[in-house]
Amino acid sequence: MNIDKSLKRVSIAAMALIVILMININYVQGTQATALQKNKLNARQYQDIFARPRGKIYAGGQVLAYSKPVGNGGKNQKYQRWYNNGNVFFPVTGYFASTGLTSGIESAYNGLLGGTDKRESVQSWFDAFVGKKPLGADVYTTIDPKAQALAYQAIGNAAKRRSAVVFIELKTGAIKVAASYPSFDPNTISSDQDGTKANAAFTAQQKLGITRQGDINKAFNETFPPGSSFKSVVAAAMLQNGSTESSPVDTPATATVPGSTHQVASDCSVNGTPPLIESFAQSCNTTYALYGQHNTSAVNDQATKFGFFKPIQIEPGLNSASSFFPAAAGPANVFLGSFGQGETRATPLQMAMVAAAIGNGGTMMKPYLVQNVKAQDGSDLYTANPAPLGQPISSSSASQLQDMMKAVVTRGTAASVLGGQDIAGKTGTAESGTSLRTLWFVGFAPASAPKYAFALMVEGVQGGFGATVAGPPAAAIAAKLIADNK
User: Fold this and answer.
1) Active site residue 232
2) Sorting pLDDT into bands at 50, 70 and 90, what band is 343?
3) Helix H segments across 81-139?
4) What is the tally of structural domains in the chain?
5) What is the pLDDT of residues 133-150, one digit of tens each?
6) Which of the following is catalytic: 98, 228, 232, 320?
7) Is the pLDDT of residue 42 over 80?
8) Whole-prediction pTM
9) How far apart are CA 50 and CA 67, in angstroms?
10) What domain range is 433 assigned to?
11) Is 434 contained in some domain?
12) Can you say how many angstroms the Cα of residue 59 is from the centroid of all Cα atoms in its chain?
């Protein structure tokens, strides 16, 4: 009897251990599988980086990125990541380097592209059970490939140094164009299997210096002085705080920078007390410098509502750089920053979002790059759900700002270049103290029925103005988008 009791106890203990072991295996291989695979201490995720194909990245039916087989095949088949027109679409795809480093959509959707995301867990578990390599899902972006190609060509032709352009669909927040110059060909860092070429390519980029480095996405991840395009933010603050487009505004021919004897010229022909709409159309510096100086909190609050001071999330794990207005940097910096000079900085994405809120009746939609993700069996794993990001201005303020942006083209600083075209915007010419300027055109199109908002920036131009350098390529890209999406 005692022996039987002992055997029962041993049997029960053995069964308990087996159950515990099964629970642990299920926990490790199921619940914790993705976390363990992605853990930075797990070297195996880099050892088999070429052992399986990743999903494709698409834009409008065109394949932007895919994995192609290399070598002799068989059970040890290897795959190389390849990018079609890599320079053109780099700000969208990012890169998948042979060292394991990723950026852009390759980074934000790494798990889905690689077949390790929990949304593919059932199929991935079955594949692993029968010895099959996991199949990555395909990512479909919001990008218009024809407009993207035109944009890259346009800013490349216009650029002396850094340039970028972003177009956003007003009603949804879908990013239709995101181009950057100089750009970077991700094939240079995805083609070897030991990381030698990738490390050499990264080193070569760093040696170029910040002004020529192509592997930084200038559409999202760099900030630039916005020049007079920032007056759209200040004008929004004025309208939100009681002014109308017809209100007279203080516009002296010159104004003194606080704490100095330096004079800033209005650089416009409507000095005195013109209506706000005329000061905006003619881009009078003193109007906005003085308003910002005396109403710093209002301008700072308005910039905050538009999204300044914090990164903008484009996709989970894919954020922009933060834009900045120097509200706390002293009166002189506020004075200069209120017409887009000095320490005010913005990404092209941020300024496109300002224009998008204006064109969309005051509602700012969350920007996004991925429309949907499909598993290899065609099932949907993710579909974008357009959502408002905020209401930075009222519908009344937005309507009046639309009138003001139209006036820039019909009779203001862009009239001689873009007059007669169905586009509206604000020009910007930021000066650096040298002959080199950073030039902008920010707005929406068509002016008569806004559908797309945009910001186009060209840095380091010898002379020139936003209207003449940034205006024409922005109008050409807008026309292409509109024509392709009627």
Assistant:
1) no
2) very high
3) 86-93, 104-108, 110-114, 121-129
4) 1
5) 668 999 999 999 999 999
6) 228
7) no
8) 0.88
9) 9
10) 146-184+219-370+386-484
11) yes
12) 16
